[in-house]
Here is the input.
Amino acid sequence: MTKVTKYSSLWESSSYAEVSPKNFAAKFAALLSLVLLVSVNKAQAEPEVYLFDKMHTDIIASWNHCGVSELTAKFPKFKGTFLFDKKKVHLSQVEVTVDVRSVTTSFQALDGNIASENFFDPNNYPYIHFVSTSVKRTGAKTAILTGDLTIHGVTKSTDMDVELVHQGEHALKWFHAAYKGDWLGFRAKATLLRSDFGLTRWAPFVSDRISLSISTALYKKRKK
Here is the structure.
């Protein structure tokens, strides 16, 4: 009698004669259940990928100057992705890389000093990098985002207070196709000591404490 090729551990019979209608139904049901289970688990286990709208994202650092005024710097050149799990927010993940050479303030000479060997030393440490390690929900639209922040070659665990300000369709979806689809809006704040990262120049005239604020819009990655 001709042998039947074995396709899986669920189909152990070696011939047509050995497969009774009862066994066939049981094994088919088991195989179907396995396929459905894998499909459901896959759908539940995959967070959605969101990309930063760079035109509507600000990464801002601020500090005190000589106890007299507050100065700010923006970092417009960056890249990153956000994996958002709307049902299990604690499983969401974010990673961002910032180009320190892109720093811009209201004073061009200061830009040059910050982006030189006197401070960030971009020839050796060209990027600021953040990768999340946990998300702890603190309210309906708030959370503490913890991650590894690397500046000037030093990595420190850093907490950020995050607020969800928008989730859903964009108000300008009617205006341009670029605004269609699902969008997220966040505000985030953190405080750090620059001396923790080996950035001590100009202290104490320039404060050690740096305030970081981020306002961002993200859109769900579109299928090509």
